[in-house]
Each structure stands twice: as structure tokens, then as C-alpha cells.
Please model this.
Amino acid sequence: MRGSFLPSLILSSVLLSASFLFGQTPATYKNDPKYQAAIAEGNRLTQQQNFFFALDAYKKANKIAGGSDLYSINKIYKLQMNIRDYKGALQTSSSQMALATSPSERSAVEANRGMTLYFQAGDKGKPDLLKAADEAFKAALADNPKNAAAHFYDGKTLARLNQMDAAREQFSTCVSCLSPKDPSYVRAQHFAANPALSLAQMAPSFEVTALDGSRFNLDEMGGRIVLIDFWATWCGPCMRELPHLKKIAQEFANEPLVIVSVSWDSDEAKWKDFVAKNGMNWVQYRDADHSLSREFGIVSIPHYFTIDTDGVLTAEMLGSGSNVEGKLKKLIARAKAQRESTVATASAGN
Model:
């Protein structure tokens, strides 16, 4: 998987505290045309994924504001995390803390700091950074015991420190802090039951409403494999892949597999018409603002991901010619074996 995936996931997660905005009185700088232009430029460049230039725009806006514009500071933090500039993100979290005035605001900033340290620890999981992350999350929870983000990521931190009982406790508490309707509720339940699962390369926890009105939540697939296909009607390679995808949908129609096609189309009517005319009768979702695509770190299409029954990303395939069927057959065989084993264990218990 690409190294950029995890920061993208975290920055888009509903558990993220980095997007908080502190309560603030109206500021005169917000009426400054130069400030407004800088913010608009930053937002435009972020949408285009020109993150380094977007950073410059938000820094300019914050400078115009005298260094006290939390909107700009929060945007800077998120972008620094996205480009893996963890040292910069730690400095920005200090700016956030300087402007925090309530326990809940301080808690959110400490959670930001903890997540920054968590990712700075890297794949090798440097113990000193993980321990510092744990301390930051504990500080966040001291200020706000119901900070779900702090519970969730402290659980992940403790699991990486091989403190599984403590990790389980944090994930369990996280569940109690979330609404059952929250897309991350089921994910937190899974981790509470098996903290070691949090160490795997997990797909983003998300929920969308499909074209037919049905609700799709990745963590509620219940023993099924998921194939996610990012595409668009205007994408030539995607059009060449469509017969292949239709073949997969037909071949695995009676298997424990869910296919989700995520479109980049901006024209909703054209997208709906294309889906209907081409008999694309599996889960269809239009990611008009590319928010879900950013969670997966997608910058080009066609793009596939296969996800196992635990929500673990097992393969990422870019472009045409990928051996999707071969990967699906192996995953489905494993899912069936797990299901049979579960049934056999339950029968033996009775």
C-alpha cells in the first residue's frame, strides 16, 4: 500500500479532532479582501490536491490574521499531516494549544499531538514516540474523558506497544463514547474484541448511501469480501475495464462478495444514465467532491482495492490488466473456510 494512505485515512476519519473550530468572537481580519482571497486560494488548491501550495496560501491568511486564525491553523495542521510533515504538524499543534481556552479545546489539541506522534513513530513503531503519543492521549482524556478520538488512537498506540489489555479497554470506552449510527462504531467494536486487528492495514471506516438508496457501511459486511472500484464515465481506461468488472459481478454473483463502484463524475444525470444503460446492478456511489477517494489516497483511476472480512486491505491495483479475479478467488475461499469453521465450532458447542 502507498505510504500516504494512513494519514489520508486519519485526516478523513469521523474520529478526527483536527477539524475542530474553537468558539471565537468576530475578527476584523475576516473582512479583509486579502485574507478572504488567501483562504479561497487555499481551499481551491486543497481541492485540487496541490497541498504544498495550499499550505502557503493558508499560512499567508494566518499571517494576515496576526497568527491567530484558527481556521487557517487547523487547515495547515491537516495538510501537514497529509504530506507527512510531522515536525511541522507538532509545531502547528503548539499554535493550536496557545489559542485553546477550554478543557474540551485543550483535549482536542492533545489528541492532535498524539496522532502526530503516532504517525511519526512510523512503520517500525519507535517506542519513544509511541510512549509520547500515549502520554498526549492520556492528557487529552484528562481534559475530556469522552474524547472518542483520543480513546481510539490511544488504543491503537497501546496495541503497537503490545499492551493489548489496555488497548482493549480504550477501544471499549471509545465504543461507549460513539453513537451506534457513527460509521466508526462497528470498527471500534471490532478492535475492542480483537485489539491485534488494529495493527493491520485497515480500509477507511466509511458509510455511504448508494444510488438505489441502500446504505453501505464497510464494517457491517458480515463475513463478505469487498471490492472497491474507483472510476468515471469520462475515463477511457475505466471504460475498457467495465466489461471485466461486469464479468466479475456475474461470475461471483452467488459468492460472499460485495462490489462498490465509486464514480468521479460531476454530472449526476450522465452518471445515472450510464449506470442504467450498462446494467451496473451492484453498489453505485458518486464521490462528487472526492472526499471518499481522498480517504483511500486515490489520485488516478481506474483503481481497485480488495478488502477481507475483517476490513483489512489485502491488495491495491492501479490501471487495467490487474488480476482481480485471482485475488478475489483466494479471499472468497478463505471467507468460506472461516464461515464453515465458525459453524462447526458453534455446532460442537451445542
